[in-house]
Amino acid sequence: MLLAIVTGTLLAPLYAGRISGTDPFLSTPMAQVDGRPVLADNPGLGVTPIGPAWETSWRGPYLLGADTLGRDVAARLLYGGRTSLLVATAATLLCLLFGAISGITAGFVGGITDTVISALIDLLWAFPVYLLAISLSIILVNEGLHLGPVTLEADSKLLPALILGLVYVPYVARPVRTEVQSLLGRDFVEAAFATGGTRLHILRRHILPSLWPTLLALAPIVAAMTLLTEAALSILGIGIQPPKASWGTLIADGQALIYSRPWVAIAPGLAVATTVLALNVLADRDG
Amino acid sequence: MIRLALLALLLAAPVAAQPAGGTLRLLAHTAAGTLDPHLNYTAQYWQLYAFTYDGLVAFRKVAGPRGADLVPDLVDALPTPEDGGLLYRFHLRPGIRFSDGRPLGPADVVASLRRIFRVRSPTAETFYGAIAGAPACLATPDTCSLDGVTADGDTVSIRLSRPDPEFLAKLALPHASILPADSPAQDAGIVPISGTGPYRFLAYDPNDRLQIVRNEHFRPWNPDAQPPGGPDRIEYVFGLEDEAELTAIENDQADWMFDGPPADRLGNLGRHFLDRVHLDPTPALWFVPLNVHIPPFDDPRIRQAVNLAVDRDAVVKLFGGAKLAAPTCQLLPPGLPGYTPYCPFPHDPARARALVAAAGAAGAPVTLVTDDSPVARAVGTYLRDVFASIGLDTKLRSLSANVQFSYIQNTNNHVQASLTSWYADYPSAANFLLGSFGCTAFHPGSDSSPNITGFCDPSIDARIAAGDIAPADRALTDAAIAIALLNPRYVDIVSRRVEDYAYHEVFHWLIAQARLR
Predict the structure, then answer these.
(1) Which residue stretches of B50-151 are H helix?
(2) Angle CA(A230)–CA(A234)–CA(A239) in degrees, nearest 5?
(3) How far apart are the C-alpha atoms of A115 and A122, rounded to whole Å?
(4) ipTM of predicted complex
(5) What is the CA radius of gyration of chain A?
(6) A203 vs A112, A117, A144, A206, CA distance in Å?
(7) Global pTM?
(8) Is omega for the bond preceding A242 within 30 degrees of 0, making it cis?
(9) Rounded to an integer, what distance in angstroms lies between the CA atom of residue B353 and that of residue B355?
(10) Beta strand B256-257 with B482-493: parallel, antiparallel or unpaired?
């Protein structure tokens, strides 16, 4: 299922170019398809976007209908999926990296280093994840990040990835620290110390390889959490910034059509739910 | 949670057929701030002041064009200006009482006009600055004596320092309501002040509801100015989202909502409830003010380019369709005196791109600020794409509707372009144009600077003041200081039991004149 979703999103340009024939990021309120307006005036009041294919006798583009700006929802769903999966993947990699470094350092070095790092992780852990993510996003979404040589513009996809990678660090650091401390008490590690192995050698040859299963088991769980959080931030308007699209921004766009064209919001919501489910199944298998 | 449960119970109460009188149930997403009529500047509460307070004169409370006529209210006749338009004498009607039972007297009139300055009313300068003594009151409001207003028996005289042909119309607005002389010299907030209208405010909790009941001391003295009301009681409940408000009205659990209907419910409204929908023209404008002091819009070519690039028919579609709005490319709305149709900006994206290229502005960064309502965000997204298509690197920024309007007015925020609207305070082209684009409406560094463009041409202001409206409107439009988009229609949806719906240009739905079936 996960493979199908990823493949679909990677084929987004193909769909947009060959089937939809529209630019999914461009507002086209006056667009027409075969002489029919994409945003049609109702006989009584208001304007309603063209509906999904199964509600109309439609076999052309706009398979899932159009949104309030005349954009192809199906094309945006695929492009949005690329963004959501990219952000979740980047956030997961960053989270695993920061979490592994801090967890390994704390567990392996021990002493005052362990105390300090553990205290910092506990401090981060104490904040509700969503509150911390929202707070950081509100600060950074307007001005971007300018930290020495590192500059991330406000509309960069790496910005939400960085925020999400940071707030979920305790979820990786703590189990990694525990695992390292457990490994240090194992026979083969003690034997390596007894035979004169250096700490760096033991870390490289014995500790790190033994941590891979733990990190691989954590990866899909972290990916699911970051995907959900990115969607939440984007729904609130402080995640992915327009004109870029993600599943979260699509859900936010669909709120204005929840009565007349509910699939504009339901489709990306289903996409998020399906992907999270697939990642959880993957995590259970790894576990 | 308890409040929500009580709200649900209220709205779930069955609405059986009621005799004349009854309780009118109104809904709004939020309250509109202070209840003080000298300070509140919202359409939401001006609608209520129409039947809770009175001025010396009033707009005729009828639907249609006659609603723009001025009639005597607390006075027995409209005064004829004397001394070259510098002196107005008003003779108070006898026997009028405030809702607390006290009789109205000339001292109350003098104190009320003085209070406009003491509480720092937002229109103290723009509307009442011509009263003799106003400059001193504007400089030191706390000690305002307003020497131009005097009383002699039952006659109140108002002397102006300069003629103002619209002075009587300004006295008909809620900011010139006559209140008891001992009204507090600061914002009354949620504490109701006694008025002379057929209704009075009973209790006000901005987080819950506003209760309005009949004023037992009201006796109709001029039905044109202040007709007696229909309902016995009015309950104005706050807190519901627009979707829930509309559902309540469709189910006859409430009678009217202040907020516009959500766009995705318009189709259903049109199919099943069209007989309860009222669409009325209103002198208003949706537009994009362009800051003429900040690049790239300090260059007239770029301002012309964006005006040429926008397809106003597309904006009307995003707004809700041709029944809800009409496209426009001029600044003065139809319906105001002096309006003549004019459009120097046909939809011409190619010419727009050429202008941007000629100005060397390709790639210029622009931030467009809108509020966070669904329609504003949709229109803003479309405008962002249009600006980008002609070469401007445009970002969209959406702010809460509670703060967006004051944010875009303050020059300290360096807003290049924004999406906003302006509704006429009263049927006056001069008030509309000078209030939005006049030199005296530009206050750098203030949250209250309605001339968001920062444009100032004293010669155009002089033409407006002299009544030369059409040429002034053309001059302002040609200067491309804003992108005029559309003129909205006012949309009201009422329940089945509301009869005698009447729409007024200044006060919109005349709430108190409704009858409940």
Answers:
(1) 106-118, 124-128, 134-139
(2) 75
(3) 10
(4) 0.81
(5) 23
(6) 19, 18, 37, 6
(7) 0.84
(8) no
(9) 5
(10) unpaired
According to DSSP, residue A161 is labeled: H
**Which chain B residue shows the shortest CA-CA distance from A38?**
B317
What is the 8-class DSSP label of residue A127?
S
DSSP assignment, residue B152? E
d(CA A141, CA A239): 7
Contacts of B139 (CB under 8 A, 6+ apart): none
C-alpha to C-alpha distances, A111 to A115, A117, A179, nearest whole angstrom? 6, 10, 17
Point out which residues pair with B370 in neighbouring strands: B398
d(CA B506, CA B283): 9
Q: What is B454-491 written as a DSSP string? A: ----HHHHHHHHTT-HHHHHHHHHHTT-EEEEEEEEEE
Which tops the pLDDT comparison, B259 or B57? B57
Give the distance from residue A70's alpha carbon to the nearest chain B alpha carbon, in angstroms.
Answer: 10
The residue type of B470 is: A
- Chain B environment of A45 (Cβ under 8 Å): 266-267, 269-270, 274, 277, 320-321, 323-324
Contact B206, B200 (CB under 8 A): no
How many angstroms separate the CA atoms of B237 and B234, rounded? Answer: 10
Residue with tokens 């990786």: A172
For testing the chain A interface, which of B247, B375, B385 should be mutated: the one with the most A CBs within 10 Å?
Answer: B385
Mean pLDDT in chain B?
93
Q: Within a 13 Å sphere around the CA of A180, how many CA atoms are in the beta-carbon half?
A: 25
**Inter-chain touch B322–A142, beta carbons under 8 Å:** no
**Which among B243, B321, B386 has the least Cβ separation from residue A45?**
B321
> Which residues of chain B does A26 touch, with a Cβ-Cβ cutoff of 8 Å?
385
Q: How far is CA A132 from CA A87, B28, B208, in A?
A: 18, 33, 31
Burial (0-12, 13-18, 19+ Cβ within 10 Å), B94: exposed
The angle at the Cα of B508, spanning B504 to B509, to the nearest 5 degrees, equals 95
Residue A144 tokens, joined: 């971007």
B254 sits in the region (left: phi over 0; alpha: psi -120 to 50; else beta) called beta
Q: What is the pLDDT of residue B12?
A: 47
Distance CA A78, CA A287 (A): 30
Whether residue B317 and residue A255 make contact (CB cut-off 8 A), yes or no, is: no
Question: Which residue is it, tokens 């699911």?
Answer: A224
pLDDT tens digits for B35-66? 999 999 888 999 999 999 999 999 999 999 89
Mutant choice from A28, A30, A47 vs B, greatest count of B C-beta within 10 A:
A47
- What the block records as the tokens of A278 is 């697939």
Q: By the 8 A CB rule, do A64 and A77 touch?
A: yes
Q: Among A23, A27, A45, which would you mutate to test the B interface (most chain B Cβ atoms within 10 Å of its Cβ)?
A: A45
Q: Position B108: which residue type? A: D
Q: Could you report the per-residue pLDDT of B222-256, keeping only the tens digit for each?
A: 999 999 999 999 999 999 988 999 999 999 999 99
Residue B370 CB contacts under 8 Å (≥ 6 apart), including other chains = B376, B377, B379, B380, B396, B397, B398, B399, B404, B418, B419
Please tell me the distance from the alpha carbon of residue B418 to that of residue B415, in angstroms, as a whole number. 7
Residue length of chain B = 517
**Which candidate, B388, B419, B410, places its Cα nearest to that of B305?**
B388
Where in chain A does DSSP place strands (E)? 32-33, 36-37, 39-41, 47-49, 145-147, 150-152
Average pLDDT for A52-60: 68
pLDDT digits (tens, 9 = 90+) for A12-30: 666 666 666 778 888 999 9
Q: What is the DSSP string of B106-131?
A: HHHHHHHHHHHHHTT-TTHHHHHTTB
C-alpha to C-alpha distance for B416 and B293, rounded to whole angstroms: 9
